[in-house]
Automatic annotation (TrEMBL):
Listed GO MF terms: DNA binding
SUPFAM superfamilies in UniProt: AbrB/MazE/MraZ-like (SSF89447)
InterPro entries in the record: SpoVT-AbrB_sf
UniProt protein name: AbrB/MazE/SpoVT family DNA-binding domain-containing protein
Species, as recorded: Variovorax robiniae
Length: 84
């Protein structure tokens, strides 16, 4: 597919067709990682921050009541001797 490189202020840019972005898995993304590799401009999904979405997932589990301990409560054998 051939695209036109257009001026955008002091830069230049291209318009990426929606079907092409969807095919690359970038249709719903707001950001992408751009690099130059072997003379080609490459767009990739931006890496997600570590633990992204964990808080929302934990809240959803708790709302369903699906956050019970798997092994249950247990202590160490020597815990009875400790003063808390």
């Amino acid at each position: 597919m051939q695209v036109t490189i257009r001026p955008f202020g002091n830069s230049k840019g291209v318009v990426l067709p929606k079907p092409l972005l969807a095919q690359a898995g970038l249709g719903g993304e707001e950001a992408a990682e751009m690099t130059v590799e072997d003379g080609a401009i490459v767009l990739r999904k931006a890496p997600r921050p570590a633990r992204s979405g964990w808080a929302e997932a934990a809240k959803a589990l708790a709302a369903k009541g699906d956050d019970a301990l798997v092994m249950g409560e247990f202590g160490n054998a020597d815990d009875a001797e400790l003063t808390w």
